[in-house]
Every structure is written in C-alpha cells, then in structure tokens.
C-alpha cells in the first residue's frame, strides 16, 4: 500500500495542536443525569444541597433556591440557579420561589461582574428535553458570563471550550464575593 501523505498516518504529526478535554465524556455519556423525573439521589440538583458547599460546588444558598457551578460550563463562571424543590417547569414554582430565583440571578450577575468583569450575560431556562434541557426534571436558570471574543474557533471547529480556571477555584472566588455570606 502506497501512502501519498504521511501526515494521514496515526501518530505522524499533522501540524495541529490538541486540546484534550476527557472530562466531557462524562457529559456525553449522561453521567449525573437522572434516569427519570424522580427527585432524590438520582437528581444532581437535589443531591448538591446535602453536600458541603465545596463538594457540591455551591456558591450561595437562599431559603428556597441556591446557586452552584455548572459541571459542564459553556464559559468560565457559568452558574445555575436552582430551587431546592424538585420541579420541572417554571409554572410549577411558587411566587416566593420565582422571586428568590430572580433575586439570586441578579446577585449572581453582580458578583460575576465584580469577580471576572464579563461584558454581558446569557440567561435562560431550557424547559423540557426537546428544548435542550440537559436535566429536564429539575428546573435551573443558567447565568452564563460572556466576553468579547469568547466565541472563538474552539467551540465551532473543535467542539471544545477552553476554561481558564478549575470549577472549585471559581466557586471559591465567587462564594467569597457573594454579599451577606460569612466565609
């Protein structure tokens, strides 16, 4: 067999750099995703409040909702605001839960601006599997900080996100800056 381009052989350098992100295989494989719509240990958003803030990646706790780091972030500092109660749909929230999710979202934006200076945010809830909810069984509000130029070639061409800091380190910085918290 004759090979015209040696760069097409396995192990032969091809001029491309590699950014290996093996932790993404957990997300692709559905790790931490509940098998059904039930609450409890099968739901990572029900499980997290029972852990320490560090182990659960919780940035702040309210009375009806809490803020935690996204395990599979779109950008550095990507936060999730979740009610403690296991509900799937925004219309199932009580008036008090809606108010606290909203207030925690506002505070998250303020803290992220102070800690990492984003130029903007994407906020949103994906309601249901067909709408793109990774965990449709437990409602969660995304707070994604954005910077000019953060949508570079990596996510588009390489289907990879470059994150400049470990989740635990980002959680520590955000929790320390959260108002009214004793750290």
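^ structure tokens above, recovered residues below v
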């Amino acid at each position: 067999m004759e090979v015209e381009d040696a760069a097409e052989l396995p192990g032969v350098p091809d001029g491309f750099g590699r950014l290996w992100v093996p932790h993404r295989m957990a997300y692709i494989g559905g790790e931490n995703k509940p098998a059904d719509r039930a609450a409890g240990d099968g739901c990572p958003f029900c499980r997290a409040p029972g852990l320490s803030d560090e182990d659960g990646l919780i940035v702040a706790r309210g009375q009806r909702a809490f803020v935690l780091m996204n395990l599979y972030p779109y950008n550095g500092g990507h936060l999730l605001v979740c009610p403690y109660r296991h509900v799937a749909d925004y219309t199932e929230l009580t008036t008090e839960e809606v108010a606290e999710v909203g207030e925690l979202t506002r505070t998250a934006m303020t803290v992220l601006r102070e800690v990492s200076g984003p130029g903007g945010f994407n906020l949103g809830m994906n309601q249901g599997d067909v709408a793109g909810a990774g965990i449709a069984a437990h409602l969660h509000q995304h707070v994604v900080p954005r910077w000019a130029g953060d949508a570079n070639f990596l996510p588009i061409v390489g289907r990879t996100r470059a994150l400049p800091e470990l989740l635990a380190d980002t959680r520590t910085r955000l929790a320390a800056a959260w108002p009214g918290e004793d750290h």
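Residues 21-177 form a domain with the HIT family, subunit A fold (CATH 3.30.428.10).
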